TrEMBL record:
Residues 40-351 form the DUF4401 domain. Keywords: Membrane, Transmembrane, Transmembrane helix. This is DUF4401 domain-containing protein. The keyword Transferase does not apply. Pfam families: DUF4401. InterPro entries: DUF4401. The keyword 4Fe-4S does not apply. The chain crosses the membrane at residues 41-66, 73-91, 103-123, 130-149, 169-189, 201-224, 236-255, 267-298, 304-322, 329-349. The lineage of its organism: Bacteria, Pseudomonadati, Pseudomonadota, Betaproteobacteria, Burkholderiales.
Length: 372
C-alpha cells in the first residue's frame, strides 16, 4: 500500500512555524556550513579523543625541552598562552580539514596544560587566586575559540576551576546549586537558539558539570575536617536549595510552555510534585539535580541530556542507598516513600487526563507497527 511521501521541510519552514507558535523571536540563526549535520556522534567522539591523545604527545614533546630549560613558571605560562593563540589562529582558517581542526584542538589542549602548570610553578601553591586566573582564562577561550568540542571542554574547565576556587576559599557545597541555576537559565533562554554555535556546547557542559559538582561534594567531608567552619557543615543545604529553586523554575517554564495557568489544577499538581521532590533532595542528595536535567530533556526532546539525567538519578539513588550515615531501614523507608509518591502521581495523572494516556498508548502502538 502506497503512502504519501512527506514534503521536504526546510530550515526556514521550521523557523517560521516556531515564530507562529511564539517560541522564538527575531531572524533565523545562520547555519554553520562547516559543521556536518549528518556526521555520526561517535565519529565526533573518536576525533575528539584523537585530539586529546595528540595533546598528550605534544605536551610530552615540548615538556622535554622545558625540562632542559629549568623550572621557570613564567616561561611555561608564556608557552601555554602562545600555543592557545596558535590554536585560535588555526581554528579561524577558512575551510578547515578534519586534520587541521584536530591538530588545532591538540595544540589548544597542550597550551592550556602548560598554562595551568606554569601558574602552579609561578605561585608555588594551589591557592584560590590560581583557580581564579584559570577560570578567567578558560572563559576567554570559550568565547573566542569557535569549535564545538573545544568550547565543551573549556566550559568544563571553567566550571571545575570555579569549583576548586570555592573549595580553596572554604565555601563548600555551593557550586552545584550555582551550576543548577546556570543550567536552568541557559536552557530556557531564547539566546540558546539565536547563538546556538556558542551556547549549545556550554549548555551541555554545564549539564554534565552539574552531576560532577553534585557528586564531588560527597567526598568533601572526607577531605576536610570540621575546623573549616559553617560552610563545611551546612553549605550543601544552601547549594541544594538553589538546585531546588532551579527545579521549581523549570517546572513553571514547562507549565507556561504548555499554556497552563498557575492556578489551574495541572499547574498546582506539578508545582506540588516539584516541591515534594525538592524536600526529598535534602534526604537523598542529588535528586533535584538529576530531575532538573530529566525535565529539561523531556521539554526539549534531547536524548543525550535525558540519558545524562537518568544516569545521574541512578547514581545518586545508589549512592544514597549504600552510604553508611543512616541505617538500612531508614533508607528503605525513604526510597519506598519516594517510589510510592511517583506511582501515586502517575495514577492521578492518568485519572485526571485519560486522553493524554490514551494518546501515548496510541503513539507507542504506531511506533511498534512502523518498526515491524
Amino acid at each position: 500500500m502506497n503512502t504519501p511521501q512527506p514534503a521536504s521541510i526546510t530550515s526556514a519552514t521550521v523557523w517560521q512555524r516556531l515564530l507562529e507558535a511564539k517560541l522564538v523571536e527575531g531572524e533565523m540563526p545562520v547555519i554553520d556550513q562547516t559543521q556536518s549535520l549528518t556526521q555520526p556522534w561517535y565519529i565526533r567522539v573518536m576525533l575528539g579523543f584523537s585530539g586529546w591523545l595528540g595533546a598528550l604527545f605534544l605536551m610530552g614533546f615540548v615538556g622535554i625541552f622545558m625540562g632542559l630549560a629549568g623550572d621557570h613558571g613564567i616561561v611555561t605560562v608564556c608557552i601555554g598562552a602562545g600555543l592557545c593563540t596558535l590554536a585560535y589562529t588555526l581554528f579561524r582558517v577558512p575551510k578547515n580539514t578534519d586534520f587541521l581542526l584536530q591538530f588545532a584542538l591538540a595544540v589548544s589542549l597542550a597550551g592550556q596544560g602548560f598554562f595551568v602548570f606554569g601558574l602552579f610553578q609561578l605561585f608555588r601553591n594551589d591557592g584560590a587566586e590560581v583557580y581564579l586566573v584559570i577560570l578567567l582564562f578558560e572563559v576567554v577561550l570559550t568565547v573566542y575559540v569557535s569549535n564545538w568540542i573545544h568550547r565543551f571542554l573549556t566550559s568544563l574547565g571553567a566550571v571545575f576551576a570555579a569549583y576548586f576556587f570555592f573549595q580553596q576559599s572554604a565555601i563548600f557545597g555551593l557550586m552545584h546549586g550555582l551550576v543548577a541555576l546556570a543550567v536552568c537559565g541557559l536552557w530556557w533562554s531564547p539566546s540558546l537558539l539565536r547563538r546556538s554555535e556558542l551556547l549549545r556546547p556550554v549548555a551541555y557542559a554545564l549539564a554534565f558539570a552539574l552531576l560532577c559538582t553534585e557528586g564531588g561534594r560527597f567526598v568533601t567531608r572526607i577531605l576536610f575536617d570540621a575546623n573549616h567552619g559553617w560552610w563545611l557543615l551546612h553549605g550543601w543545604r544552601v547549594g541544594t536549595t538553589l538546585a531546588n529553586l532551579a527545579l521549581i523554575i523549570s517546572t513553571v517554564m514547562v507549565l507556561r510552555r504548555l499554556k497552563f495557568a498557575l492556578n489551574s489544577l495541572p499547574a498546582i499538581l506539578g508545582l506540588s510534585a516539584a516541591v515534594l521532590f525538592s524536600g526529598f533532595s535534602y534526604v537523598a542528595p542529588g535528586l533535584s539535580s538529576a530531575l532538573l536535567l530529566i525535565l529539561i530533556a523531556y521539554s526539549f526532546s534531547d536524548r543525550v541530556l535525558l540519558g545524562t539525567g537518568l544516569l545521574g538519578l541512578l547514581s545518586f539513588v545508589s549512592y544514597y542507598y549504600y552510604q553508611l550515615q543512616h541505617s538500612l531501614l531508614y533508607k528503605s523507608i525513604v526510597l519506598f516513600s519516594l517510589g510510592l509518591l511517583l506511582l501515586a502521581a502517575r495514577l492521578l495523572l492518568c485519572r485526571l487526563f485519560p486522553e493524554s494516556s490514551l494518546a501515548d498508548t496510541h503513539n507507542q502502538k504506531e511506533s511498534a507497527h512502523d518498526s515491524i
